[in-house]
Backbone:
């Protein structure tokens, strides 16, 4: 099938790009942050390409945005040594600071970060193809997350400032850091998802080695000075390079205490196996997902389709929380496909800065070929492309394809596409859908669209022990950030939210004594003279 081919004129000339969104010369980044210093790397560099191409007389030309340091294992281990020294077995400056003092450092960083909004948003568009609206939203949501984290920590510390008297024992229970954290974020949310682990790890008193995502890496550069100036030396260290050389060396050292990773379950498993003392490694992982959307026969179809479109195709479907497969009851199948196809046709393809654009180029090399392979496999086994132009592609751009009927014989039924393919499976009996979820290797979220209380209740009760979140008549999503974000099976380890992240990067420790006059006098003296950072009743406003 073909469309009235907008892809022929998809990529702009250099002159057609609005002035405010143009980039200057390629950025040759050689800086990386270790022990409070911006060090200069004189070794090899990794080129950074944009998913945006420029139309020229010689054809479409890929834009080279710049380059980043290809650090080796020795350089990565120097960063780790800096973090280990700054933690100093829990006796370093950072882990022993009072909570209010650590909060002040994070607030200083946030103020510096806000100054870089325009340049970070521009790099989000150019590096990963995120449209302007979503790029601005990612930056602002990240700032809001930091503010919310600070407020939650204040509440946590206020609750911890009281003493507990149980069975003649007086105790104060507080949360303390775990040690050295390795934080790695994903390319689809290279700022927000990275900072949802990085900031809680820091504010709880851990020291950190941070490796930016494989795409969306240059956008961290404007924040390096803010990191350097806002935290004591060694508290935050930022490294670059191939993970198989840098991160493998870090894990194999055995000096990583907390592993925060958002990526594939295969990658996470391989890295965890390198740690020589895995029983001492705390892991918080956001991994793969194949979130189903289930459309029941009694349903508000307009709402279901509206949620399905954004759930499946927001940021081109490149979200772990995206709806990645639909089970649609045969009674409403044709209507669902027709309405979905019509709404899909209204989505505007273009460049990230174009007004109202919804579909943009894909940043991952080989992704168009991968999606084309999934599509070809499905077509060969009986699926049809429902929407006009579905699957048409040009360079880094892949026009969404709505596929039906999809069956278990097809790869897209099982594999996470992480892109703009929308598989639809017709079903007749609820048990077909229940079996799929029960047998799936993934268990992040799912969505149920329907208004029959009996059917919805049956599915909810079947799925509460299978996934981390069930969405009723709404797409899958992470927010609000105060809600738990987790998963089962191969989809996650640990729970993230503003509340949970502070706990996952810390452990409860208590100081206890028998409730006797001499012990009461001792504690009172410590409190009166503020001689301890731990034993304290300070109230943070």
Residues:
């Amino acid at each position: 099938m073909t469309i009235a081919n907008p892809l022929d004129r998809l990529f702009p000339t250099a002159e057609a790009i609005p002035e405010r969104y143009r980039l200057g010369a390629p950025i040759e980044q050689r800086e990386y942050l270790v022990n409070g210093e911006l060090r200069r790397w004189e070794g090899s560099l990794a080129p950074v390409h944009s998913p945006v191409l420029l139309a020229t007389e010689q054809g479409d030309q890929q834009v080279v945005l710049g380059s980043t340091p290809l650090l080796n294992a020795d350089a990565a281990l120097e960063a780790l040594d800096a973090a280990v020294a700054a933690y100093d077995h829990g006796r370093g400056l950072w882990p022993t600071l009072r909570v209010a003092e650590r909060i002040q450092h994070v607030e200083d960083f946030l103020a510096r970060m806000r100054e870089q909004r325009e340049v970070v948003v521009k790099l989000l568009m150019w590096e990963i193809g995120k449209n302007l609206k979503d790029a601005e939203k990612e930056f602002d949501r990240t700032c809001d997350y930091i503010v919310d984290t600070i407020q939650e920590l204040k509440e946590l510390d206020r609750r911890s400032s009281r003493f507990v008297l149980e069975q003649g024992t007086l105790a104060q229970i507080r949360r303390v850091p775990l040690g050295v954290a390795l934080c790695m974020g994903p390319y689809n949310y290279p700022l927000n998802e990275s900072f949802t682990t990085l900031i809680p790890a820091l504010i709880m008193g851990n020291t950190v080695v941070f490796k930016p995502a494989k795409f969306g890496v240059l956008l961290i550069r404007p924040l390096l000075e803010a990191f350097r100036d806002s935290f004591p030396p060694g508290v935050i260290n930022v490294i670059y390079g191939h993970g198989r050389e840098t991160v493998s060396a870090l894990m194999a050292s055995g000096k990583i205490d907390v592993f925060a990773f958002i990526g594939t379950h295969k990658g996470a498993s391989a890295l965890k196996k390198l740690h020589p003392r895995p029983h001492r490694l705390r892991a918080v992982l956001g991994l793969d997902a194949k979130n189903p959307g289930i459309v029941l026969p009694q349903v508000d179809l307009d709402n279901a389709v509206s949620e399905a479109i954004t759930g499946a195709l927001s940021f081109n479907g490149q979200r772990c929380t995206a709806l990645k497969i639909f089970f649609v009851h045969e009674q409403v199948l044709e209507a669902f496909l027709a309405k979905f196809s019509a709404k899909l046709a209204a989505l505007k393809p273009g460049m990230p800065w174009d007004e109202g654009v919804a579909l943009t180029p894909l940043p991952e090399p080989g992704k168009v070929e991968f999606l084309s392979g999934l599509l070809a496999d499905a077509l060969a086994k009986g699926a049809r492309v429902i929407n006009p132009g579905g699957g048409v592609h040009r360079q880094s751009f892949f026009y969404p394809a709505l596929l039906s009927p999809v069956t278990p014989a097809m790869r897209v039924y099982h594999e996470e596409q992480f892109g703009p393919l929308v598989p639809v499976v017709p079903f007749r009996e609820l048990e077909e859908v229940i079996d799929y979820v029960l047998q799936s290797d993934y268990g992040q979220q799912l969505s149920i669209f329907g208004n029959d209380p009996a059917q919805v209740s049956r599915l909810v009760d079947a799925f509460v022990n299978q996934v981390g979140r069930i969405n009723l008549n709404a797409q899958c999503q992470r927010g609000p950030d105060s809600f738990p974000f987790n998963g089962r099976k191969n989809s996650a380890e640990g729970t993230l939210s503003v509340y949970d992240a502070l706990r996952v990067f810390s452990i409860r420790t208590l100081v206890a004594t028998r409730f006797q006059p001499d012990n009461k006098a001792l504690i009172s003296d410590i409190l009166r003279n503020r001689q301890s950072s731990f034993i304290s009743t300070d109230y943070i406003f």
